[in-house]
Amino acid sequence: MHAIVGGTVFTMKGSVLNRGTILIEDGKITAVGNDIKIPKQADIYDATGMVVMPGFIDAHAHLGIVEEIYRIEGDDVNENIDPVTPHLRAIDAVNPADLGFKDALSAGITTVVTGPGSSNIIGGEMAAIKTCGTVIDDMVVRFPVGLKAALGENPKRNYGANKKSPATRMASAAILRETLVKGLEYLKKINQPDQAERDLKMEAIARVLRREIPLRVHAHRADDIMTALRIGAEFNLLLVIEHCTEGHLIADRLAAAGVPAVVGPVMVNRAKVELKNRSLETAAALAKKGVNFAIMTDHPVVPIQYLTISAGLTMRGGLSEKQALESITRNAARLLGLDDRIGSIAQGMDGDIVVLSGHPFDLRTVIKRVYVNGKVSYQNYS
Fold first, then answer.
1. How far apart are alpha carbons 158 and 120 in whole angstroms?
2. What is the C-alpha to C-alpha distance for residues 287 and 289, in angstroms, rounded to an integer?
């Protein structure tokens, strides 16, 4: 049992507790408040003068799949020889020994969504995992947490340059729609046992068509976002827009469709044409229209330890401090359908806690201690 006492606790449930106490037992938070009786057997951590928050969440990265210091040896992010690979699974590529996991923990990030890249129209299934562990099977929070798809420049560049389809945005949309239609036909077949031949690709597509998981569509430009919304409506899909760089231009459309977004990466240059309208105001524009969103690093595009800095920068674009904090805690968890476990500090939630020397958006702040599933997983003794 652990007791964290004396800190300023941001519960992310609407309250901030001065000199609050948190009890954690068997991996779960068992009590939060100001007048909590601390059991004698508890390991007490004095957080007086410090800030205590739920573990941070990076809702879109490639942690463990693209290892920073390796090239071919550690890069397993894109099976870029076939534009339709829904049967690929992030859990089969993650290396828990990737140094990025240490970086994540040292930055207070306790949950990350990792998965395939964006070279393919459909890239594979993504996983929400904890950032502490040695075996991926023990780190999974939810798998699959979504099926990765991509529109825009990346599939065009990957296949068009090799005289293969898709070479245009029309072909990208057509391939996606064609695959979803095949999925509908597969659903009809599996209802007839004598015709049910197992198809791994279609099993993944079926999960999307049944609305068991969202189709998480990489889309930067406004027209690509609209294509995703159009296809989502046609097939009655749960959608998440990944990157959403020009989301501020069509925030009302995203709001009307009830489609959330994972915005970012924020700390990048205009590396390609479809990033020309990138803006720190995107998150604020989405918030104004009521669109739920999270902030990403897209690690290793932006190193994962800069997630809090990325969220803090959105305040320059008009986002409130509360909204910026929620984008890497409570609202990120809600977007993932995991807000019953992570993203806030309350009784029954996972024991994922970060103790900081100051406010997370202050560049001088140091992470002092991190708990993952109720265990001390990182300690700064300085």
1. 8
2. 5
Residues 176 and 247: their CA atoms lie apart, in Å, by: 21
Classify 191 in phi/psi space as left (phi over 0), alpha (psi -120 to 50) or beta. alpha
For residues 105 and 372, is the Cβ–Cβ distance under 8 A?
A: yes
Is the distance from CB of 120 to CB of 83 less than 8 angstroms?
yes
* Residue count (the chain): 382
144 preceded by cis ω (within 30°)? Answer: yes
- Considering just the CA atoms, what is the radius of gyration of the chain in Å? 21
User: Partners of 109 in the beta sheet?
Assistant: 56
Which helix (H) or strand (E) is 203 found in, with range? helix 200-209
- For the chain, the 3-state helix, strand and coil shares in percent, each to the nearest 5, are 30, 25, 40
- 250, amino acid identity: I
Greatest alpha-carbon pair distance for the chain in Å reads 70
Nearest by Cα to 55 from 102, 10, 115? 10
The DSSP secondary structure of 9-60, one letter per residue, reads: EE-SSS-EEEEEEEEEETTEEEEEESSPPPPTT-EEEE-TTSEEEEPEEEEE
Give the per-residue pLDDT at 197.
82
Q: Are 176 and 231 in contact (CB under 8 A)?
A: yes
pLDDT in tens, 20-50: 999 999 999 999 999 999 999 999 999 999 9
Rounded to whole angstroms, the Cα distance separating 127 from 207 reads 14
pLDDT at position 382 is 80
Q: What are the DSSP calls for 223-268, one per residue?
A: HHHHHHHHHHHHHT--EEEEE-TTGGGSHHHHHHHT--EEE---S-
Give the pLDDT confidence score for residue 192 in this predicted structure: 79
- 189 pLDDT more than 80: yes
Q: Output the six-digit token pair for 202.
A: 């279609």
pLDDT for the residue 279: 96
| DSSP-derived 3-state class of residue 334 | helix
